[in-house]
Amino acid sequence: MPSRRQARTQGEYQDFTMTARLREIPYNYTSFSDREIVLRLLGEKAWEVLRELRLERVTGRSARMLYEVLGDIWVVSRNPYLQDDLQDNPGRRAALIEAMHHRLDEIEKRRLQHLAEAGADIEAKAQQAARAQKVTFLLERGRDAVDAFGAGFAEVATLRRLALKKLCRSTRKDNIQFDGLARVSHVTDATDWRVEYPFVVIHPDGEDETAAVVRDCIELGLTIIPRGGGTGYTGGAIPLTRLSAVINTEKLDRLGEVEPSWLPGVARQVATIRCGAGVVTKRVMEAAEAAGHVFAVDPTSADASCIGGNVAMNAGGKKAVLWGTALDNLVSWRMVDATGHFIEVTRLEHNLGKIHDARVTRFQIQRYRRDGSTPQGEPELLEIPGSRFRKAGLGKDVTDKFLSGLPGIQKEGCDGIVTSARFILHKMPASIRTVCLEFFGQVHDSVPAIVEIKHYLDARPDGVAAGEGGPRAVMLAGLEHMDERYLKAVGYATKAKRQMGGASRPKMVLIGDIVGDDDAAVAAAASQVVRIANARGGEGFIAVSAETRRKFWLDRARTAAIAKHTNAFKINEDVVIPLARLGDYSDGIERINIELSIANKLALLDALDEYLLGELPLTQHGEALPAPELLGDRREAARELLARVRARWQYLLEHLDLPVAQASADAVPGLAAVTHAGLTVFSLLQDHSVRASWKDEVRAELQQLFDGLVFHRILEGCYAIHQRVLKARVFVALHMHAGDGNVHTNIPVNSDNYDMLRQANAAVARIMRLAKSLDGVISGEHGIGITKLEYLDPHEIEAFRGYKQKCDPQGRFNAGKLLAGGDLRNAYTPSFSLLGAESLIMEQSETGSIADSIKDCLRCGKCKPVCATHVPRANLLYSPRNKILATSLLIEAFLYEEQTRRGISLAHFDEFGDVADHCTVCHKCADPCPVDIDFGDVSIAMRNVLRKQGKKKFNPGTAASMLFLNATNPNTIKIARTVMIEWGYRAQRLAYRAAKMLGLAQRQTLRPPASTGRPRLQAQVVHFINKPMPGKLPKRTARALLELEDRHIVPIIRDPAKVTEDSDAVFYFPGCGSERLFSQVGLATQAMLYAIGVQCVLPPGYLCCGYPQTAAGEEEEGRRITTDNRVLFHRVANTLNYLDIKTVIVSCGTCMDQLQKYEFDKIFPGCRLLDIHEYLLEQGVKLDGVAGVRYLYHDPCHTPMKTYQPLKVVNQLMGSKVKLNERCCGESGTLALTRPDISTQVRFRKEEEMRKGVAAIRAEGADGGFAGDVKILTSCPSCLQGLARYNDDAGTDADYIVVEIARHMLGPDWMADYVAKANRGGIERVLL
């Protein structure tokens, strides 16, 4: 019997084969077919009526008009930006509804017209009457849908006002979000399945606030969806109803210290850590590691997943093989239940190991009154046999949602919201070896190595099983597996030199950590594990150092890239298989893959045959001959070839289980039958002894048949068909937490391809049956959600449903989830692959390239930790993941509105600009992204689109910045510097002091307001002055001090007493920041080069590198500056051809980034680009430590140090230990001027890091700690300005590295001394 998922896609496919079209409803950029949209908007009976009418329709005009109405409703209902625009513009809303009614009225006119045309013929009249009755039914349903659509706006407006009023009693207004960005960010998780958009998203500031927010939502009649990082793979946090409130816990990120604790019933102290529900898993892992411990709950999504989700899903990862999942490691957790009151669950008599090893487990459940601290009644004691938590023989199992009524854990947010938890921590043994095992043989021969490795390491040295007492000398702390499809997806670099069968990649890779306190024993065990791999045809590699071990694990973190070729959509199933049956499971998956592969190849033959039957394209020059004369019998020969190959491939597909000895000689060569005696056809296909090969059997033959230029286009058509059919090939890819049998089974799917979805869903059903037949379970850590519910047997979920009815009968939490109907039947996923006429619009604008650049986003959230604009506690939630979701919807809104008479709403351009503004263009998101999306580049493209379309809002900060940076005339620069820097900065500092006295600045900096949309002018002014601009800047630019402002002069600066024929000559490009703004940086660079005897060539006149213009969306201006500079530098090189310039020096990171595009090796042959600090390090410059001063280092987002590791450079130059201080300073070029509100939010996080860094330094040393100065150094002019603004609040003094070196090496008056020396014969002026 087919599953619900299969039935849905089979129904679609049957409709497709009957009508040849599934998608006539316009503006439908989703996986939904017409049927599903009609079912959703009009009901099932309406679809049946429509099917009947479609079979007998003449022109279809009425159906198309109805579909126009449904298309309008559907696109608006799933796009909050369109909804908000219509909500705020009654005129546009009325025009849309009027247009809908007009189309329905036209259908009614046609109905009446057809009735009148029936005439007196009784039979015709009866037929028309029956038809008219059906049309009337559809019209009634259509009008009801339009009326409900129109009424919905008033209902939403009323409920928003009520919700805002009520929720503001419990939390700040900024924490209550109805905007499009917040709603689209929370409509889906890592799956991209969507059902309904949440009505509101709420971000409570703290744990205590959460209970009050829950009670308010209950009063409002909203179902509550608990949400953390949004990394779920089963849709557990996806809203199923319109009236839902997502409570995002990311602000509940308080992380306690690692501390020894006495646990109830445990005889010794145990290291524990308390975490808020919103703490990112990776932070807990790092905190534990810093204290010398291990946090065992380490899912692959650790970079973005949160603790609350780990508890609700009972998450695990690679360390689960040693210490279990979240449930095994929890000491206690707090949650808010369906009454809006706190519950605290505490585990008693913790066995400090895997929970299923305990004979009986005991939990104490304490409920609290409304205040959250006063106990309500006596605590309840819950006793559960340890064997109840997992199916016997399995290391993971989260299919039992009831868990004997234990609240919170494994409930997927259906019985309350977890707000905090305390975990036990473990001690990682002193010695660690990481092994990487590459297997090139067949899977069924290689997979048993997993069991052999596990059994070997689980045994005591004396052969006694590990569970029989005493700790093991050597343990397996993680064993991860990737199959060949995953290895290809992550771009795995093969380590082995010996590659069997010429394979470039292994068939399977295992990566594992082997740990123990005895280094020799660990080393011996690692060697034995390699020998186990060798015995199965594998190669083994052992990593000892931390850096090498980290590199071994890097590929494992990129497994999400498996879905890149299907625009990041995949069916993601995780099952758990007993270790002894992993080989059988792998064989079963191989069987499915072989069947799917041959089926895809047969579909290719069908498509090629259809192509050959049609008119074949020929290339003729001169006199054209008839096609039959040119083709001869080639068409027939090609079709005979296809028929012959089809017969062979079909035979293989139908006889997989046939013994080789009985197989047809045409399908199985005689040699293979001899070498594989006793095996089946499947075995031959599995080890590639027999192949169904497009290249050898079809392509090569076609190339011979259609050889010659005249037939070239025919072959191109065949290749294009192959690519199209291949794109629709379904395959199953595996990666495992192999140590505990947890297999992640993923099927990438193009969600717009119904046949592909049908095959994929059929494969999922087979996989689930296979897992159960091997005594496995259908989920080990991902949960059930909406994607797996249909595969649970009724008895497996019945106990949970009884529990849900008891604790939350009204469905206040996650209404519909894990209950009947809570599966994929109403779920859809967006797809830009479905664009028809819209693709022409996208081709004419740059929105198409933007859509293409973000379409592969996996929504994994790995970009969040590094993103400067994702700071939840500062109300800044613009991670690249969220921005990509928003950008996709805004592009969809543009495409839809360009096709309507109403035109594009100006509000969408503002929202588009808002997303683009919330990016510092640091490009840091590109590194952790598994599919290499750089949202910095996307933001620049968005800014360019707005500028080109004339929709970019005027910004005085941007205009002033560009005026200052674009100027090249010395007088203009002098005036601009006087007005903006000297007078403007002084006025800003005065305003800052006034605002600080009045308490205005602190209100913003302590609790930054949300920055979605443009704040009012008054607020922006306060944002601009809430941190002071730097003072005591040089009065004149570096060039002005040295009298080098003439753009026709090329200056060469050198110390005549030190320069020899062998002295280095460098070309120094100071850039705007080091020359016009912080001229002390440019002078310090020159002074140090002067002091070490280097000839320093400066460019003629004031120049900008072009990066600020490019980043601001002024692409043409940036390109013009770059081209002009390159031409100028070629002239300089020709003029100074007697100098051997081998190094181009910069003192600014953005200049470095831009100058890398200048191709300097073609200007000064053989030269390299280097930061001044790296150059000084190469020249042996360093301080011997500075007394009375300690340093922090802020590495700029655009670090100029590309050749050496920046922190190592700084430590060596300063001659003392310098600590890295993370996070963006908030200046970000011109961001602090153009969007000071965003800068305030970014600074909030940086200030925390600076205070923490200063406190750590102050705590160092004897006699109460360090009491001297703390300086924060940087290597970016913009960052120098940004960091200087923290001097008052963080107790630091910001400075440039090279300036600090100059001060200590050349003396306190270094600047005046250098200028005097240079002006006394140290400058050669060469006429250009």
Biggest sheet details: 7 strands, antiparallel
Report the average pLDDT across residues.
90
Shape call: globular
Beta percentage is: 5-15%
Distance from first to last alpha carbon: 84 Å
| Share of helix, binned | 40-55%
| β-strand number | 30
Structural class computed from helices and strand pairing: alpha/beta
Query: Whole-number radius of gyration?
Result: 34 Å
Strand arrangement, major sheet: 5-6-11-7-8-9-10
Number of helices: 51
Low-pLDDT stretches are 13-20, 462-470
Question: How would you describe the overall organization of this protein?
Answer:
- It is built from 51 helices and 30 strands.
- With 1328 residues, it is α/β, with parallel strands linked by helices.
- Helix 1 (4-19) packs antiparallel against helix 26, helix 21 runs antiparallel to helix 24 (694-705) and helix 31 packs antiparallel against helix 32 (935-948).
- Residues 13-20 and 462-470 have low confidence and may be disordered.
Task: Describe the structure concisely.
The chain contains 51 helices and 30 strands.
Sum up the structure in keywords.
1328 residues, alpha/beta, 7-stranded antiparallel sheet, 46% helix
Mind sketching the topology for me?
Elements: H1 4-19, H2 34-41, H3 44-56, H4 61-77, H5 80-88, H6 90-117, H7 122-167, E1 176-177, H8 180-185, E2 200-202, H9 207-220, E3 223-227, E4 244-248, E5 259-262, E6 269-276, H10 281-290, H11 307-313, H12 320-323, H13 326-329, E7 330-336, E8 342-348, E9 360-367, E10 380-385, E11 417-424, E12 431-439, H14 443-446, H15 448-458, E13 474-483, H16 484-489, E14 508-516, H17 519-535, E15 538-543, H18 546-554, E16 570-576, H19 582-613, H20 627-631, H21 634-654, H22 670-675, H23 681-686, H24 694-705, H25 712-727, E17 733-737, E18 742-748, H26 754-773, H27 794-807, H28 838-843, H29 847-854, E19 870-871, E20 876-877, H30 880-898, H31 906-917, H32 935-948, H33 956-966, H34 970-998, H35 1000-1006, H36 1017-1025, H37 1038-1042, E21 1049-1053, E22 1065-1069, H38 1071-1077, H39 1079-1091, E23 1095-1097, H40 1107-1111, H41 1115-1135, E24 1141-1146, H42 1149-1155, H43 1160-1163, E25 1168-1171, H44 1172-1178, E26 1189-1193, H45 1206-1214, E27 1219-1220, H46 1231-1234, H47 1236-1258, E28 1269-1274, H48 1277-1284, H49 1287-1291, E29 1293-1296, H50 1297-1306, H51 1310-1319, ...
Helix pairs in contact: 1-26, 2-3, 3-7, 4-6, 4-7, 5-6, 6-7, 7-9, 15-17, 19-21, 19-25, 19-26, 21-24, 29-32, 30-31, 31-32, 36-47, 38-39, 39-50, 39-51, 44-45
